[in-house]
Specification:
single chain; mainly alpha; 7 helices; about 0% strand
């Protein structure tokens, strides 16, 4: 199964057609601002990639087995993948269901992105929050 997924990712991934690998293998994030910046880069680098989920499944599977996380895979930075694996293995007595874990991470990334967009709109002059309108 993984051979087919790896082939699909290598054949159709945005990263494989890029002339620069810097977007997918950034320096480790330092501090809160660095992590926020890297999360944004991860989402941007993989936006619209047709094999994003398969890519994330491959990375999570490898990282769960090897214990080493690096680069951006499936639009998720290394620290977030490592934390998700640690949480999943901490609450289970066996290895996590990698496909389910990938789905949970991608849902979380989408929700975080939607919150960020909403916060940016509210920060613009002339926009008031629902709370402001009610008060």
């Amino acid at each position: 199964m993984f051979r087919e997924q790896e082939w699909r990712v290598r054949s159709h991934g945005r990263c494989t057609t890029s002339t620069s690998q810097d977007a997918w293998f950034p320096e480790p994030a330092r501090g809160v601002d660095g992590l926020a910046r890297q999360r944004g880069q991860a989402v941007e680098a993989c936006a619209g990639c047709p094999v994003r989920t398969e890519c994330l499944v491959i990375a999570l599977s490898h990282e769960a087995d090897e214990g080493v996380s690096w680069g951006i895979w499936g639009g998720v930075c290394a620290r977030d993948r490592r934390e998700a694996i640690d949480r999943a293995t901490g609450r289970l007595s066996s290895a996590p269901d990698i496909r389910r874990l990938a789905h949970e991470i991608l849902v979380h990334v989408r929700q975080s992105r939607a919150r960020s967009r909403a916060e940016r709109v509210l920060e613009k002059p002339g926009h008031e929050s629902c709370v402001d309108r009610i008060a």
